[in-house]
Amino acid sequence: ATPTALLVGTGRGAQLGILIKGPEVLESTRRVDTVVLDKTGTVTEGRMSLVSVTGDEDALRFAGAVEAASEHPIAAAVVAGARERVGDLPEVTGFANVEGLGVRGTVEGHEVVVGRAALVDVDLPGPLVAAREAAEESGRTAIVVAWDGVARAVLVVADTVKPTSREAVAQLRGLGLHPVLLTGDNARAARAVAAQVGIDDVIAEVLPADKLDVVKRLQDEGKVVAMVGDGVNDAAALAQADLGLAMGTGTDVAIEASDLTLVRGDLRAVGDAIRLSRRTLGTIK
Ligand code: ADP
Ligand code: MG
C-alpha cells in the first residue's frame, strides 16, 4: 500500500475508535489468524460485585480488611460488599499480594488468606466445596477465605459479560479468525463465560507471568496471534503477540504494551480493525 493509503487507513481507524500506533501496524493486523481474548475487563465488564457469602460470619470482615490493601477488581467487590454488610473494617498488617492467586495479611491476630484454593492450600469442607462449584458453574468467581490454616468461607463475586462481546466473537469467526479465551480465573467459570459469548477454546488458571508463554506457544504452532487485554497482568502477552490490542478502558501499562487501542472498550472494534487493515492493504476476502 502507498503511504497515503496507510495514512487514510490510520485516520479511518481513529474515526472507528481504534488508535493505531503506526502505519506499519496495519500489516501485522492483516496477517492475524488467532485472537486471544483476556476474560476479565475485556470480554466482561471487569466491574465485580459481591453476590454471596457461605460459611463463618467473620469471613467478610476479615477478607474485606485484607482486600482493602489490594487494587484487584475482586478486592474492590469484596471491600464494597463488606462495608455494606458489616460496616467499618478492621486494620490489616503484613499485607502481601500473591500475583494471580490472592492476598494475605494479619487481622485481629489471625493469619488471613483470601483467594484461589491453590493459594489457600487447605481442604475445603463439603458445604464450601458445594458453594464454590455452584458459583463456578454459572461463570462466577469463588474466593476462599481461610485463617489460621482453616478454610472458613467462600465469597462469590460476579462480573457481567459486555453486551457486545457475543456479536464481536461472531464477527471474528466471520472474518475467518479463531477466538481463544485466556484467563487466570478457574476453568469452570471461564468455560461458562466462553459459552455465553460463543468461544470453544479456553485456556484458564493461567498465572499472570504465564500468559506470555501461552502466546509464544501459539506462535510456535505457526499461528499469527492477536492478543486483546486490559490489565497489568496482560502487558507482557500484549507485547509478545504479533498484534497487541488494549482496551481503552484498561490500564496504562496495557495500552503502552499494545499496537492498537480500542478507545471505547468495545470488542467489536477488533473485527473493525482487521477489516480496516484488509481493506487498506487491498486484500479484502
Ligand atoms: P484475570 O486473568 O481474569 O484478569 P487474575 O490473573 O488477576 O485474573 O486473577 C486470577 C485469579 O486469582 C482470580 O480469579 C482470583 O481467583 C484470584 N485472585 C487474584 N487476586 C485476588 C484478590 N485480590 N483477591 C482474591 N482473589 C484474587
Ligand atoms: Mg483482565
TrEMBL record:
In terms of superkingdom, the source organism counts as Bacteria
Stated family: Belongs to the cation transport ATPase (P-type) (TC 3.A.3) family. Type IB subfamily.
The subcellular localization recorded is:
Cell membrane; Membrane
Protein name, as recorded: Copper-translocating P-type ATPase
The taxonomic lineage of its organism, from the top, reads: Bacteria, Bacillati, Actinomycetota, Actinomycetes, Pseudonocardiales
